[in-house]
Amino acid sequence: MIPSPPLFHQSMTAPLRRVLVRRPDEAFAVDDPELWHYAGRPDLTAAQAEHDAFVDILRSCGADVVYHTVEQPNKADAIFVYDPALITNDGAILLNPGKALRQGEQAAMACQLAALDVPIVGSLTGEQRAEGGDMFWLDPNTLAVGRTFRTNDAGIQALSSLLQPQGMKVMSFDLPAWDGEDACLHLMSVISPVADDAAVIYPRLLPVALWQELKRRGMRLIEVPDAEFASQGPNVLALNPTTCLMLQGNPVTQARLQDAGFTVHTYVGNELSLKAEGGPTCLTKPLLRRTSLP
């Protein structure tokens, strides 16, 4: 196992060295899919097999995979480990989910991170709401945050206050209501950085100010067609600056990534992802991204 170094990560695309995942358990096979805003009741056995294959890909590409094993009864969304915390170079900031059914996941994440010797450097509390899916690192000193039904002004301000002493700034971007407050439209539902100079985007829902910022930075924008938005075409996990992982069944987006010079791995996620609105970025919490090992 790779030891925990002082540096964790403030990059979305440097080589993935250590990553946290959570294997689906009984809580994921929800009896009331509509309550959880799932497309159907996941088949647990099939979901676990899909997850095992997903993890095999991560390992084959050089990542040390560790499991989130803290018990979380009745927390179906707990498999989406990206959301309860933000990892910075100094440690983790515990977030505060905007989805009521996810409240409590941050406490379980705190226990798991403590077991992995990842320090907690701050927490959102009270009405400060934010979920990890609404944020990504634009560069090592700039965090992009979406203002959504899951992440509010108080949460964004709290993040800014926690990051500013470390020399980092927050840029916030408004997302549309889309399918309403019960649906999940995170900022990362419409964008995934795949290299320092490239991102996969769904242009119809990308905030104008973010589009302008990406263009100002000279980013290559790889567009997802309308037909592949619902099948999570924009949800792409960078494994290193030239290799990425996406959900199987998005051939146009996959081809566009390959044409742009990327090696693309795919996984089957019929139960794991398509029924539960969570792709490869949602299923992983990168703990260490770094060009070279310590």
Structural commentary:
It comes from Deinococcus hopiensis KR-140. It holds the Pfam family DDAH_eukar. GO terms for molecular function: arginine deiminase activity. This is N-Dimethylarginine dimethylaminohydrolase. Keywords: Hydrolase. By secondary structure, the chain is an alpha/beta fold. The chain has one domain (16-289): L-arginine/glycine Amidinotransferase, Chain A (5-stranded Propeller), CATH 3.75.10. The chain is 22% helix and 24% strand. The chain contains 7 helices and 15 strands. The chain has helices spanning 33-36, 44-60, 105-115, 153-163, 208-216, 251-259, 270-274, and strands at 16-21, 64-67, 85-88, 91-94, 120-123, 135-139, 142-147, 169-174, 191-195, 198-201, 220-223, 236-240, 243-247, 263-267, 285-289. The strands form 5 sheets. Strands 2-1-15 form a 3-stranded mixed beta sheet, covered by helices on one side. Strands 3-4-5 form a 3-stranded mixed beta sheet, covered by helices on one side. It has a 3-stranded mixed beta sheet with strand order 6-7-8, with helices on one face. It starts with 15 loop residues before the first strand and ends in a 5-residue tail after the last strand.
